[in-house]
Automatic annotation (TrEMBL):
It comes from Saccharopolyspora kobensis. SUPFAM superfamilies: Amidase signature (AS) enzymes (SSF75304). Residues 24-464 form the Amidase domain. One of its GO terms (cellular component) is endomembrane system. PANTHER family: FATTY-ACID AMIDE HYDROLASE, FATTY-ACID AMIDE HYDROLASE 2. This is Amidase.
Length: 495
């Protein structure tokens, strides 16, 4: 039997029943990677010898009667996570030989849960792109169309899952880096509530792995089913044992509802700052139609929705000011001269991004105060609705574009070009206030490319969008393997 596209949940059941061993699953996954990944380039740092040894230990543990959540399950890990003994470069050539001595906290949690780590997946330079390519490891392609990107910055993980390279993966999300690759590759991903899963050890090369509270950025699960997302989130969530874990214990509230007909959903498919492409709009409408058909209450407008223009502006200010603080893009004098040349009337997102490059602390505090007002607005909205359905990006996966200056790139939306980074406004809708958001497949474009949408929930109510994702998967279908491999039985996605 080919186990490559089975869910983690199914593999756990098969392992418990003795239908397969972890060694067999691991050998099959490694053989598949060695046979198929030359064209996709998802696995940039293989760790096959240690994976085989871990699989043997998992089988021995099971023979002794042990049973852990992921015991014996082959998984992958985004390159940006520290794994002791493996290089962590973030795609930056100056760090190609950096090898951390300790595992990231999430890698430790995977291993403690019994997972078998096959290796690391590819990322963009410094994790700062909507594609996954770098000078060290090359370009990761989309398994549905190798001329297109798999997304970024967790693009290697999404491509690996869509290709059957392991059952689960862990990534990170600051600007849609979990959700966009999931959308482009036709898989599932979950951006947790800000702070729900500790990030220690998911840190730039050479930086100390400290238990810091990151702004905007989260780590989260990726999978081929919604139930697997919940399984992996349970492993990842909970406070860092070095800090809040000394006093706090995590208890997430249950999903608000167990039936689709009980959900109250706000559906949005228009943004004032960028159009939504027809293929993505159709995906949103397919999900909305499935909800209506199931008897859910679906609305298209609400006065409770926070202002989308201000939300995008605040997001860009917080995102870019933080990015420039970590990775300077030029001298302060040059940047200030460029900002001085802007018209006071220019409030476009390019101008917003440029001004954010010279943010003062006063500027950041002001933006943060506005963010708190938005968070309160979302609390009021989620008293009326259980989830928001909206795009992740305006288009399906786009062709590889490796222009050195990303500010010169453009995104084609139904034949009209727009600034490349403007497509981040949909991802920022959940990121700026720190809300949980689950990326789910929503059919395919006329060209046959995957299309996904995100289900946004209330803070720390991650189980609600995850449950909604599971119910939609049951009703409409979910992951479908790319045409080369065919769809697993019972999991064909709607067109």
């Amino acid at each position: 039997m080919d186990w490559s596209f089975q869910s983690a949940e199914e593999l756990v059941a098969a392992l418990r029943a003795g239908a397969v061993t972890s060694v067999e699953l691991t050998d099959e996954a490694i053989a598949r990677i060695e046979r198929e990944d030359e064209l996709i380039n998802a696995i940039c740092v293989p760790d096959f010898d240690r994976a085989r040894a871990a699989a043997q230990r998992a089988d021995q543990a099971r023979a002794r009667g042990e049973d852990r959540p992921l015991l014996g399950i082959p998984v992958t890990v985004k390159e940006s996570y520290d794994i002791a003994g493996l290089p962590t470069s973030w795609g930056m050539p100056q760090h190609r030989d950096y090898v951390p001595a300790e595992d990231a906290v999430q890698v430790s949690r995977l291993k403690d849960a019994g997972a078998v780590v096959l290796g690391k997946t590819n990322v963009p330079l410094g994790l700062q792109d909507i594609q996954s390519f770098n000078e060290i490891h090359g370009t990761t392609s989309n398994p549905w169309d190798r001329d297109r990107t798999s997304g970024g910055s967790s693009g290697g993980s999404a491509a690996a899952l869509a290709s059957g390279f392991g059952a689960l993966s862990i990534g990170s999300d600051l600007a849609g880096s979990l959700r966009t690759p999931a959308h482009f590759c036709g898989i599932y991903a979950h951006k947790p509530t800000l702070g729900l899963a500790p990030t220690r050890g998911m840190v730039a090369p050479q930086a100390p792995a400290l238990p810091v509270d990151l702004d905007l950025a989260v780590v989260g699960p990726m999978a081929r089913t919604a139930r697997d997302l919940a399984l992996l989130l349970d492993v990842m969530a909970g406070p860092d044992p070095l800090t809040l874990g000394k006093a706090h214990h995590l208890t997430l509230p249950p999903a608000r509802h167990e039936r689709l007909c009980d959900f109250r959903v706000l559906v949005i498919d228009e943004h004032p700052l960028i159009p939504t492409g027809s293929a993505v709009r159709a995906g949103v409408n397919r999900v909305a139609a499935a909800l209506v058909d199931a008897g859910a209450r679906v609305e298209r407008r609400s006065p409770l929705l926070p202002d989308l223009t201000e939300a995008a502006t605040l997001y860009m200010r917080l995102l870019i000011s933080g990015a420039v603080a970590r990775f300077p893009v030029g001298s302060d004098e040059q940047l200030r001269a460029r900002v001085a040349g802007l018209s006071a009337d220019d409030q476009g997102l390019d101008a917003v991004r440029l001004r954010a490059m010279v943010f003062s602390h006063h500027d950041w505090v002001e933006a943060n105060n506005r963010r708190e007002l938005h968070r309160h607005g979302w609390r009021q909205l989620f008293a009326e609705f259980d989830a928001v359905v909206c795009p992740i990006t305006p288009t399906p996966a786009f062709p590889h574009d490796h222009k050195p200056n990303p500010m010169e790139r453009r995104i084609d939306i139904d034949g009209v070009e727009h600034p490349y980074f403007d497509q981040l406004v949909w991802a920022g809708l959940a990121t700026m206030p720190g809300l949980p958001a689950t990326a789910v497949p929503a059919g395919r474009s006329p060209e046959g490319l995957p299309v996904g949408v995100q289900l946004i929930g209330s803070m720390f109510e991650d189980r609600t969008p995850l449950r909604l994702a599971e119910l939609l998967e049951q009703k409409t279908g979910g992951f479908q393997a790319p045409p080369k491999w065919g769809a697993p039985a019972g999991r064909s996605a709607p067109r």
